[in-house]
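Lab meeting, item 3. Inverse folding demo.
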């Protein structure tokens, strides 16, 4: 075909490619098709259920890790027993796929690590088995312990309505909503102990998964996700922050620099997939990506997963009120301190729960992420991508974006192949390959490893 017969846009593209060789016109990336069963599940998320769970958690008075001997109605072990009971009831609706267990150990005294005396640490773990024989696993996590001003005070009230009764309620609600939904990936609903002492519960559990060679492909950790009004008094109930680390522990920074993959860590790809997918569902929220492991002076249980080499991210409300966190309940100069139920917005927490479920179930419904290579043997101005075939993938898509763009900005169908040459320069673009099943579920994009 000669150039003058081409439609104007193709002509412009051909001219652009032929003469400039740089940036062609980009197609918009269409939102991924919505899964009807998942969309229906999201509509069942209940702000009333979330409120009821959080009220029960707060009613234990304190959930400090050092309140373990406070009796059947107060303290961290009473809260633990309540969570075990909730998950066991939920498991009845799972057709035998959900099991509930405790991850328990004794942490020896270590005052330098905020452990003034030996203490039993016990996390509640509900596992919903998928049918993928590889055991590919995704985690939705929270911590159920709480604290007040003195970090090892196991006696006085530490209501922890937002930190982190909010996310613990969300994890229980997500388990309730997803228990009856068949999925391919295995999903773990985790409520960790001793986050406030230094991520001890999640640290123990993430290491247990690593030692057992479990293929953990993502941890979605929520922590402080229940208040929509920040310390400036402004309500922001349409946004959730998504933190993810860019440089994995032990990574070769020089190699990352050479590849230019500083915004394409496995955790960044998980966060990108989460935003791209969950923004498309009707959750009432959009995600704000932050390429940073966590806020300054703070940390969270997702970092325990990162420390074991697993991709992980953290959800946190858009603007926090620090007078409501890690504080004794009191009024000082007319200001109410403490992490109280009165500051919670359960309609907002319902949105966060839907957002979590949309991402989590999309991960577990999709094929696995392809393992992709980019050929860098020779100096060329195109891009040769190849990847291992993924079970249940009907076809693949190549996504791309400019190195300065935060999310994928163009997509092209690659068909059922496992190798493709793209007439665009690998020097100018970031590429990813995602697996698509017969129903249209998309995996996260596999970021290519350069191969010479
Ligand atoms: Zn917290």
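The presenter then showed the designed sequence:
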């Amino acid at each position: 075909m000669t150039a003058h017969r081409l439609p104007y846009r193709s002509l412009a593209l051909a001219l652009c490619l032929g003469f400039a060789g740089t940036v062609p016109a980009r197609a918009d990336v269409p939102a991924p098709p919505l899964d009807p069963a998942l969309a229906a599940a999201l509509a069942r998320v209940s702000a009333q259920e979330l409120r009821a769970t959080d009220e029960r958690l707060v009613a234990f008075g304190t959930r400090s890790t050092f309140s373990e001997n406070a009796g059947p109605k107060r303290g961290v072990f009473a809260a633990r027993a309540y969570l075990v009971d909730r998950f066991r009831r939920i498991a009845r609706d799972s057709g035998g796929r959900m099991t509930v267990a405790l991850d328990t150990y004794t942490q020896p005294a270590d005052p330098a690590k905020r452990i003034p005396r030996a203490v039993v640490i016990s996390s509640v773990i509900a596992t919903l088995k998928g049918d993928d024989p590889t055991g590919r696993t995704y985690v939705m996590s929270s911590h159920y312990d709480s604290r007040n001003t003195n970090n090892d005070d196991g006696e006085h009230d530490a209501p922890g309505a937002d930190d982190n009764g909010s996310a613990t309620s969300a994890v229980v609600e997500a388990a309730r909503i997803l228990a009856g939904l068949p999925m391919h990936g295995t999903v773990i609903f985790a409520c960790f102990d001793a986050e406030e002492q230094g991520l001890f519960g999640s640290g123990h559990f993430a290491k247990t998964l690593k030692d057992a060679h479990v293929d953990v492909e993502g941890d979605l950790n929520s922590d402080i996700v229940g208040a929509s009004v920040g310390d400036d008094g402004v309500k922001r109930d349409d946004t959730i922050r998504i933190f993810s680390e860019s440089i994995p522990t032990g990574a070769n920074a020089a190699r990352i620099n050479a590849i230019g993959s500083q915004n394409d860590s496995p955790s960044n790809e998980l966060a990108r997939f989460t935003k791209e997918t969950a923004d498309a569902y009707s959750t009432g929220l959009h995600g704000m990506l932050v390429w940073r492991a966590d806020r300054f002076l703070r940390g969270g249980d997702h970092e325990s997963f990162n420390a074991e080499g697993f991709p992980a991210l953290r959800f946190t409300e858009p603007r926090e009120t620090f007078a409501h966190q890690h504080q004794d309940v009191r009024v000082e100069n007319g200001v109410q301190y403490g992490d109280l139920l009165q500051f919670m917005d359960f309609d907002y927490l319902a949105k966060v729960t839907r957002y979590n479920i949309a991402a989590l179930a999309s991960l577990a419904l999709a094929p696995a992420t392809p393992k992709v290579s980019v050929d860098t043997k020779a100096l060329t101005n195109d891009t040769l991508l190849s990847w291992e075939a993924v079970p249940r993938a009907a076809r693949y898509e190549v996504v791309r974006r400019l190195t300065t763009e935060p999310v994928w900005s163009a997509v092209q169908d690659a068909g059922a192949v496992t190798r493709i040459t793209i007439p665009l320069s690998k020097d100018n673009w970031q590429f990813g390959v995602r697996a698509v099943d017969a129903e249209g579920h998309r995996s996260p994009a596999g970021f290519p490893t350069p191969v010479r």
